[in-house]
Amino acid sequence: MTVQKHFSSDYAAARAKFLAAARAAGAQTESIPHPLKGIAGEDLFTDLAWIGPRDAANVLVTVSGTHGIEGYYGSGCQVGWLDDGHAAALPAETAVLLIHASNPYGFSWGRRVNEDNIDINRNFIDFEAAPPPANPAYADVHPWLLPEQWSAAAAEDIRHRIAAYYGRVGEKAATAAIVGGQHSHPDGIFHGGTQPCWSHRTIRAIAGAYLQTARRICVVDFHTGLGPFGYSEMICRHPPGSLSLDLARRWFGDAVTSPAMGESASPIIAGNLRMGLVRFCPQATTVALNIEVGTLSSEEVRLSVIADNWLHLRGDVFSPLGQAIKAQIRAAFYPESEAWLNLCYPRAVEIQHQALVGLAAA
Prior knowledge:
The protein is of the alpha/beta class. It has helices at residues 11-24, 71-83, 104-109, 138-145, 152-169, 171-179, 198-210, 243-252, 273-280, 298-314, 320-333, 338-361, and strands at 28-37, 43-51, 58-63, 94-100, 216-229, 232-236, 256-257, 285-294. It has an eight-stranded mixed sheet, with helices on both faces. Strand 3 (58-63), helix 2 and strand 4 form a beta-alpha-beta unit. The chain is globular, with a radius of gyration of 19 Å. It starts with 10 loop residues before the first helix and ends with a helix.
């Protein structure tokens, strides 16, 4: 059978497959209910699977569905790792915590964002320590990123406006303004919110319950939508010169890029989930990365996010136009072709193996 057997067509099927694989692997499981329903009226959960001693010194944490629709890829990688028997050969003093669907609402509804239109990967900041980071340039672009109506002409107009904006201010400034994250426009794209969202509070509680005795942690967060088709970039947001960035490069080699050092097309962002786990586990040396798998062009991916934002604020998800937009964003973040899966799934397995080897050697 092909690797496609590990992947699912919707959130409910992915959840069932994950729980079945976790239990077959002998994992301890926990299901944390979300207060809202999914697109088909189904109950929503963030599900956990723990394998290994509860007092393990080393813990690999894998996370799927941070950007909900990207959960198709992440869930399949978690299910495959369990189904293929990798849990049976963990190093000594090592455990694995699999967090399935950290943003279950976005996973079910086919959105990157959550129930509050929040990009939870911009929400993991310490709101009590300081105000959210400002992005004043976003106000300049917001009006034409949320048109009154959606049509092919509206989409083409946005394409031209974005291209002109990039030409006027430069690639770095334009990327930071549009996709870097903003906390000023709740109806905008890449909105980080003004207080901890449900997923933020849930991940913090998980860290408190499962990770406080770990001395070394590696976090691998599964993402899609950036880079060449099928290529798995490993983005590391630890500060240049830090022990954690040094360990990441030792464990994973040249695949590791640092946005702070200008090595990635990803902008410098605040509030991502994996660095939130670093903050929640101060007792541990933590190496936090995300796997970012390329899909379509950055223009197509960005436009799908803009269209989906319009749809959920001003359109009808279940209309023909709504279904076309849902298909557009799904293709942008989950190509689901056998060729794409055969590129990114084996690499995800290899990365998890490298993480376990690195943890054991640290």
